[in-house]
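Severity: low
Component: inverse-folding endpoint
Summary: output formatting inconsistent between runs
Steps to reproduce: submit the following structure tokens with default settings.
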């Protein structure tokens, strides 16, 4: 397939995700390499929605280690239970943070990040990483984002 993304400029959030998901499915389904798939998912999210930062952290021992991402350089290691990412890992659930300054222990990789959503990746019942998406706008993420981003990370087969 052509490695080109089609996303309507003026579609609703739901319409954009609905168009994006089959394209991501096409990009990832025959590719077994996890880094390649994470890289394309991060690029597609950035391209489709213009997020400030979109990328992955992978569980390595008792830390999260930076994986493929799009956006400004970021912290490379996050401890279990620390920050939004480490908390989403510990609680094994998606966290929506409307204002990062109100989240105790938030790790500010960039002072421009204002709100954030973190979605855990599962290998069986174990969290093996997280998808982290940051916005430079307050309150940028909703349950709609959570629902679709969870669908998107389920394309990664660990
Ligand atoms: N803010 C995150 C750290 C990762 S960066 O935003 C890319 C956190 O508190 O876990």
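Observed output (run 2 of 3):
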């Amino acid at each position: 397939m052509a490695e080109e993304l089609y996303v309507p400029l003026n579609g609703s959030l739901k319409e954009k995700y609905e168009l994006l998901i089959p394209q991501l499915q096409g990009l990832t389904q025959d590719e077994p390499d996890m880094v390649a798939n994470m890289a394309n998912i991060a690029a597609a999210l950035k391209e489709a929605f213009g997020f400030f930062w979109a990328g992955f952290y992978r569980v390595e021992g008792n830390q999260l280690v930076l994986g493929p991402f799009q956006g400004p350089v970021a912290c490379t290691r996050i401890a279990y239970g620390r920050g939004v990412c480490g908390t989403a890992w510990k609680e094994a659930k998606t966290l929506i943070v409307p204002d990062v300054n109100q989240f105790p222990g938030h790790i500010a990789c960039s002072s421009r990040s204002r709100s954030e959503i973190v979605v855990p990746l599962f290998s069986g019942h174990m969290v093996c990483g997280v998808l982290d998406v940051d916005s430079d706008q307050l309150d940028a993420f909703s349950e709609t984002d959570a629902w679709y981003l969870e669908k998107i990370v389920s394309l990664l087969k660990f």
